[in-house]
Fold these 2 entries.
Entry 1:
Amino acid sequence: MTMPNFLIIGAAKAGTTALYEYLKQHPQVYMSHEKEPKFFALEGEKLDFRGPHDQENINRTAITDIEAYRKLFQGVSNEIAIGEASPLYLYSPKAPGRIKNYIPDAKMIAILRNPVDRAYSGYMMHLGLGWETTNDFTQALLEEEMRIRNNWGWGHYVNVGFYYMQLKRYFDTFNPDQIKVYLYEDLNANPIVMLQDIFQFLNVDQSFIPDIAIKHNISGIPKNNFLGALINSVKPLNPILKQVFPSRLRQNLKKQVLVKPQLSMDVRKQLIEVYREDILNLQDLIHRDLSGWMK
């Protein structure tokens, strides 16, 4: 049975949803209908994540069985590039070895965002969803190690951002030619150029131009409780609501009703120092200037 030949491995809140949606439009690309199966991070594990809403989310939706995972690709016909997107793969220490075991020649795509902005965006997303237990980002950071010890499936805001350590596992496991690393800035500045570079990497038609008008996975907090309840009720997995509120309408609605307070400069400076060494090492690994992340 068919298995993927490429993976979007992360990072979370760095544009992976947009990348998944844009690649899915290409006629020579097949993306699994479930965006984040998380198989290579959680294969064979009995899921018992204990954070708020983990039971109805990661514990219920993650795929841990190889046969169930293969079924995600049973609709493949004549597509050249077959993939899925699970940002957990970059963060997971176990994922590179499992990928190597099942699909050793697979290509991997990573997109990285300033880790401070990524952490805050992740917090704002969970706050907007109503998952967060604190309205104070600083307090959430103070609770992070406790959350990890208590096996929360989310809320690892700082730890997810150590990209050098995470990417190095992949560079140590695979031929560097199998790995493409982009920045969130690339996606924002010139998404078509970035996508065409990915098409070349995947050996599909580079001339295809996807529709990039929709902004995906917008995070923030609702302007009031009623709007928040409305946004959170319109789940893409609900087939009825999906017809009533198609993707373009959902995202436009989010842009109208979500606000994102600015991160305080003091917290930003503190987090930059937390990440400084990792960012400097990452620059050397991926040969990109990341000095802007440390300002």
Entry 2:
Amino acid sequence: MVTIHLVNLRKTFGDVIATDDVNMDLEEGKLTTLLGPSGCGKTTLLRLIAGFYIPDRGRIFFDDRDVTEIPPNKRKTGMCFQNYALWPHMTVFDNISYGLKMKRMNGMKYTPAAIANRVEKVIDLVHMQGLANRTPHQLSGGQQQRVALARALVIEPDVLLLDEPLSNLDAKLRHEMREEIMRIQKELSITTVYVTHDQNEALSISDMVAVMDKGYIQQYASPKEIYARPQTIFVADFIGKCTFIDAEITSLGEYMKARLPDGQVVSGRSPLEGYPFQVGERVRCAVRPEDLQTERTDPTDNEIMGVANEVVYLGSNLEIHFKVGDIDAVSLLPPDAPASKGDKIRLFAPRANVMVLPLGGVDALRKIPGHPLYSQPAAVSSSAA
């Protein structure tokens, strides 16, 4: 097991910045997910860790070993690709054992008996007993994924790399394989990096999540922290549902006050410690649908007025879509809540659950001293009198 240290990584392809200013530690024995939309740089970052790409700038360490320019086959990583990449003419046994046949330990190859023993163990680990003599076309999608996972694990890597491994499976198989990957990862306690664009997958499977957009890591934290305290508008919007309301700050403090376009005033706090908010600054207030309720629970709760324009019954909840002035908002209420299309509704949100976020994304993060993306302000030169 190793801790992966990524230091000031940058990778470009021509004029395209694939990933930049990456500084983070992927902890030993933990499963870290790189999450973001297509084209955000997550697969590029995974391939930098694997050694398929060399960064334009920055270093990659496995513990204290600099592997930045070490080729993939010498990094002790195992990788599962999105399309499985199984040899169609080989049996399950031969696909899994291929890496062992190529690998040498102290200049010596594994014996056939050692290979057979190791393959048998990983076949048991991924629950593929009795299928060693089948070829890939005789397997289901989930079984093919298990073979790809076994092939990555059989070489006993220090790091397991998974590039959207479940994207080709249907919903039921995705859930089953997600559980299997979690089981195997915990059983082996192997440092794992997992790429996905599926937010639910990331929240359910990860110890840590790095949310990426346009090549930059906008937040790196636990799934609970990412959901409850998103640091940018992008993260809040990408992880779960959120109601966003444009506002202008009217007073500062632990709880800031902000005026909405229709004149209503809300109170909330920022999950972004250290950001230099100012009175009069345009911001965006974010509220999770489950945090808008029909009853006040505290005298300090925010009161938000609107008009319901859609009511959707979801079984366990009513999803209320409503207007706050010209702004679309959404709330999750109990299924028996009295609400119909066209109703004027009054909802309450605890001020601790109203998140005040700066505009600007990465540019906002660069203003926070101590943040990995912080940019030191340029010194203002003065002329002698």
